[in-house]
Amino acid sequence: MEGDIPINSLEAYPLRAASDDKLKHRLEQRGKKFWEYRLQKFVSYKGWDANEHQNHVGPLTPSFI
Questions:
Q1: Of 56, 60, 19, 54, residue with least CA distance to 40
Q2: CA nearest 64: which of 41, 30, 35?
Q3: Taking a C-beta distance cutoff of 8 angstroms, is the pair 48, 56 a contact?
Q4: For residues 15 and 17, what is the distance between their CA atoms, to the nearest angstrom?
Q5: Residue 18 burial (C-beta neighbours within 10 Å; 0-12, 13-18, 19+)
Q6: Per residue in 6-16, pLDDT tens?
Q7: Tell me, what DSSP letter sits at residue 64?
Q8: Of 18, 35, 36, 58, which is most buried with the most CB atoms under 10 A?
């Protein structure tokens, strides 16, 4: 391929090259949420799921699952 192409026409490009402020905000929020999840917090639940398809009785699972 010859010539220059706009960086934001690529499938992936640096956030600093994004021109859409809503996109920047959404990606920054997603990154902050990801960073919060780096430390797992374990929780336990006993009982049926919302659809009553599965009765949960054990083990501890990370809260982000």
A1: 60
A2: 41
A3: yes
A4: 5
A5: middle
A6: 998 899 988 88
A7: T
A8: 18
Quote the tokens at residue 16. Answer: 């600093």
CA 18-23-27 angle, 5° bins: 100
The tokens 């799921």 sit on which residue?
Answer: 49
Q: Encoding tokens for residue 26?
A: 């959404």
pLDDT of residue 29: 94
- Residue 49's identity, in one-letter code, is D
A 10 A CB-CB count for 37 gives 11
Higher local confidence (pLDDT), 52 or 10: 10
**32 burial via Cβ count (<10 Å: 0-12, 13-18, 19+):** exposed
Fill in the amino acid letter for 53: H
